[in-house]
Design goal:
Blueprint lengths: L1 E4 H30 L8 H26 E4 L15 E6 L4 E8 L10 E3 L3 H6 L7 E6 L2 E11 L5
Helix pairs in contact: 1-2
């Protein structure tokens, strides 16, 4: 299952449309121009363009399939809940690290670890899902089990 937020779905759809309507036609034009210049074996524009075209086509196929199978979830339906579901921003205490951490649980294609976002299939998200504020959960790690305590669960407010 491909869970995704409304915002994530819109961002991936915009990326797909930009690839189809803008980037791919530009690269096709460059490749066509480069091919018309003669010897293709040493033509950097042609070789790079063909490679980029394959990458674009691969991404278009992936995004098309992903979006067809996506199940769009609106996290705000859980606004006010203290239980962790998809789309929650969770603050937890990690006993081993002796510190608080805040993460947002999102879809696999929209999560960005640098922004504190994790995929719903990540180990920490799996450990936290369905827990409530005050619950402690066990997180399996290569070094052994870690104990996490759920401190706060926040969802976006309904629009």
């Amino acid at each position: 299952m491909n869970y995704i937020t409304v915002q994530g779905y819109q961002a991936l759809k915009a990326e797909l449309l930009a690839l189809i309507d803008q980037e791919r036609p530009q690269v096709v034009e460059t490749v066509h121009w480069a091919a018309s210049n003669g010897d293709r074996s040493e033509n950097g524009d042609y070789l790079y363009g063909k490679k980029r075209l394959r990458e674009i086509d691969r991404r278009i196929r992936f995004l098309t399939k992903y979006l067809e199978q996506a199940q769009v979830i609106e996290p705000s339906v859980h606004h006010g809940s203290e239980q962790v579901f998809f789309g929650a921003t969770v603050t937890y205490w990690d006993d081993e690290a002796q510190g608080e951490h805040t993460i947002t649980i999102l879809g696999t294609e929209e999560a960005n670890a640098h922004q504190g976002q994790v995929s719903w299939v990540s180990p920490v998200a799996k450990a936290l899902l369905k827990a409530r504020v005050g619950d402690t959960v066990k997180l399996p790690t290569p070094a052994g089990w870690r104990t996490l305590e759920v401190l706060e669960v926040v969802y976006p407010s309904p629009k």
